[in-house]
Amino acid sequence: MNSGKDGDEARSGESTPEEEAHWPAPTAAAPIDVRVALPGSKSLTGRELILAALADGPGTLHAPLHSRDSALMVDALRDLGTGITEVSTDHVFGADLRIEPAAELTGSTSIGCGLAGTVMRFVPPVAALALGPVAFDGDLYARKRPMRPLLDALRALGADIADEGRGALPFTVHGTGSLRGGRVELDASLSSQFVSALLLAAPRFDEGVHIVHTGSRLPSVPHIEMTLAALRARGVTADSPAPGEWRVAPGPIRALDSVIEPDLSNAAPFLAAALGAGGSVTVPGWPAETTQVGDQLRTLLPEFGARIVTHADGSVTATGDGPIRGVSLHIPEAGELAPTLIGLAALAGHGSDGSDGVVSEITGIGHIRHHETDRIAALVAEIRGLGGDAEELPDGIRINPAPLHGGVWHSYADHRMATTGALIGLVIPGVDVEDIASTGKTLPQFPELWRRMLGLQSERTAAPAFGGFIESSGSEPSDPLAFVLPPSSDTRFWA
Ligand SMILES: O=C(O)C1=C[C@@H](OP(=O)(O)O)[C@@H](O)[C@H](O)C1
Ligand SMILES: C=C(OP(=O)(O)O)C(=O)O
After folding, report:
1. Which CA distances in Å does 402 have to 254, 320, 360?
2. Does this complex have an ipTM over 0.90?
3. Which fold, 17-39+262-494?
4. DSSP state of 11
5. Atom 1 of ligand 2 has which residue's CA nearest to it?
6. What whole-number distance in Å separates Cα of residue 60 and Cα of residue 86?
7. Protein residue with its CA nearest to atom 13 in ligand 1
8. N or C: which end of the chain has fewer CB within 10 A?
9. pLDDT tens for residues 358-411?
10. CATH classification code of 42-250
């Protein structure tokens, strides 16, 4: 795995110079009918890596994500003494991972967080269990992402952390090999990851943890439920005794072999493409039950006019055969999906598709100002840059119908900004996405998958680091199955 640990520039380790600059987003020439298989969930891969590193024996992750964020997590846990090796398999998105927990976690190291919220939040509590100082830093913008509530909570639980009052990266956790734990108050209104971070390491705290959220709002609740479910799957006693409170009992974390579900949040731009291009997009391997917030796409996309069918074989199809409708959505739990939904809302208002010109408002997402960039400010600026009419709300965005035109769409090093630019470019000719390589954070295959989705030839002569993920059954642009996985990989990969 190439994490690009030491550089702001190196994001996916496989981008061409052209992608680093401006990527001409392909415009859909005709309705599409394609099947797009997606790699593993960032959030599940991160949690399973942490829990496997703290477990009572070795375990294997099947079908994990291989991307910049997951590589940074692997590097961080290796730096703390965990053995992580790639185990070759024949499925399409890269190797399984074999994890051998360290007998004792070791400090005296430094950890690069890139721009990964999961690394900068989930690893410090683990570092507190290591022996010796562990220095954390990340990309320049990562230093702006909030950390103070988590660092203060860790201190209250017994950790020694030096951050020179910054409440942000860089900081050093002086691990002593153990942490007392216990009851702690924490304001998680800026990020649910503060809660998940403490819960994940808490079985190894002397007293476990009892977190009491003190803020007036709580974003991304499904991600906290995902954390509790991952802990319980490993035999840990973990619950929520009251709204805004969570408890984890001290005890062993059971080693196990886990299968990572495909990333349903990364399904968002692809399913949304059915609305942009017209036609159908099918994502295979959709779990029948999941804690991933991306599952909500099945109810959110119909708000924009999509038809969704969940098939018995575990695939989900989105079909778009009419104008994109304006929406009024309040989605505090689904901020991760907001950039794609906002992109659709901008298209609903662009005025040349026969849409009814309804104003869209998407609210409850103030916390996405603290994601990879201030996503509300960035989306407003970029939609306006293409001639659209968008304005910031205190906790969201309003989009008034307006025709869009081509131009440069800036990514702000944010993978979901980049994919949103690609989505708009499906409909609006002449959109150039700056830094499409930022998609390497969670989906290095994005440019390739997107072009293949449209029946376009690959930009590469050979897919380098993540090759073999598509089995083209013809690659004629008109072939509706130009983009499928072979059935054998399908069953193996999504089992
Ligand atoms: O725990 C996780 O894996 C995540 C939690 C959410 O963070 P916030 O609560 O900061 O929104 C989500 O947006 C992020 O992409 C992943
Ligand atoms: C907010 C996101 O990432 P992170 O895990 O870095 O917070 C995201 O992927 O949309």
Report:
1. 55, 21, 12
2. yes
3. UDP-n-acetylglucosamine1-carboxyvinyl-transferase; Chain (3.65.10)
4. S
5. 371
6. 10
7. 336
8. C
9. 899 999 999 999 999 999 999 999 999 999 999 999 999 999 999 999 999 999
10. 3.65.10.10
